[in-house]
TrEMBL record:
GO terms for cellular component: cytoplasm. GO terms for biological process: amino acid metabolic process. This is Peptidase M20 dimerisation domain-containing protein. Residues 217-321 form the Peptidase M20 dimerisation domain. Keywords: Metal-binding, Signal, Zinc. It comes from the Eukaryota. Binds 2 Zn(2+) ions per subunit. Residues 1-19 form the signal peptide. It holds the Pfam family Peptidase_M20. Zn(2+) 1 binds at residues 100, 133, 197. It comes from Mikania micrantha (bitter vine). GO terms for molecular function: aminoacylase activity; metal ion binding.
Amino acid sequence: MVKKPIYSFILLFLSVSAAAPQQPPADAAAVSHFQQYLRINTAHPHPDYQSAVSFLKALATSIPNLRTRTLHLTTPNKPLLLVTFPGSNPSLQSILFNSHLDSVPAEPSKWFHPPFSAFKTHDGSIFARGAQDDKCIAIQYLEAIRNIIATDPGFKPMRTIHICYVPDEEIGGLDGMAKFVESNEFREMNVGFFLDEGQASTNDKYRVFYADRSPWNLVIKAEGQPGHGSRMFDNSALENLMKSVEVVSKFRENQFDLVKAGVLANSEVISANPVYLKAGIVSGDGNFVMNMQPSEAEAGYDVRLPPTVDPDLLKKRIAEEWAPATRNMSYHIVEKGPLRDYMGRPLMTVTNDSNPWWTVFKHAVEAVGGRLSKPEILASTTDARYMRVRGIPTLGFSPMKNTPILLHDHNEFLKESVFLEGIKVYESIIKALSSFDTDSP
Ligand SMILES: *[C@@H]1O[C@H](CO)[C@@H](O)[C@H](O)[C@H]1NC(C)=O
Ligand SMILES: *[C@@H]1O[C@H](CO)[C@@H](O)[C@H](O)[C@H]1NC(C)=O
Ligand SMILES: [Zn+2]
């Protein structure tokens, strides 16, 4: 009797020390798949899409019931992989999960570990370009389905589940998602809800995005009378342009003040950042002519609009205040993305209970102990806009919490524990969304 507690203490100690370094084989395999995928260099300007698609296709085919199709919507070197888990009720709208195949380049000399090595440190941090953006979700979707089937071999989703792996997101998606949504294959999929990439969160809540900001390239031009460098006169091109630059700067400051005061998030204001100034007359030796006031000058701005603002109001402001014709100014806007959907509604997905997809999604995250922070507008742009423009409810979500935000940064990494937790979150999401049986209004 006296010995028993000691005995059980030793047993407990042994079992803990033996279990600690070991990972369930399914988890170890999932992490290994993630690392293998990260080692395929799909960074621009020469992304190896063929190897990425072959790898993902093999991984998908290793899971029972999944079908794959490779589409070539433009050139043979830009494949798009479609993975499908057929549902039992094909009359219901399907669910589409998205991950882009490409990533931005990396400068190896600025990294602790080579960016395509997927090196794992002692604390389980996996370093690689794409670890957060967005190769994690690419593998998590598949491993989640694998786990669902492993736990319940008879599992059949009611709605069909698709995963698409698209090229070229990082360079605008024109040969990727933009072409895909125009295809017959896409039309036949009858997508009801789209889940795309999100971003890491530095706290213990997951972030979720309901809109992107839309970029405009704005060029403001000023004309004026040319003259000798020594002359004083009104309304030279540069004087006219400088007046505009001041007005735009004031507007930018007011928007930024709202952010600094905590009234609005960075992504909820209009940003107007100067990106170039062009003026002056270049002489034969490549220097500027100093004794001549030029007749033309221009400034370029990167402008980003959240879907909550009225683009026509901003255009009016540009025409009246930033580049008034009365001051011999003109402007040119290149809209790099849509602001309204095909019905003329602002490009954003409703995140309250009036959108049943939102409710199901949120409850599924919470069912596995996850918490969502206040839905946000993404400061930049993703392929999600191609879905929202078709009126398809779309959320941006990558389950990475307590993680520094390192997309497009040096030393991008993801902890394996975070990666594995994300698989559990997708298991819950996939089960919930695929068994949700009423079509959205
Ligand atoms: C506009 O340009 C014309 C022609 O160069 C010039 O005469 C006029 O003063 C300019 N007006 C302003 C407001 O810049
Ligand atoms: C849900 O959000 C939309 C868009 O923000 C809003 O128009 C609507 O009134 C909200 N509905 C409910 C039930 O809160
Ligand atoms: Zn991305």
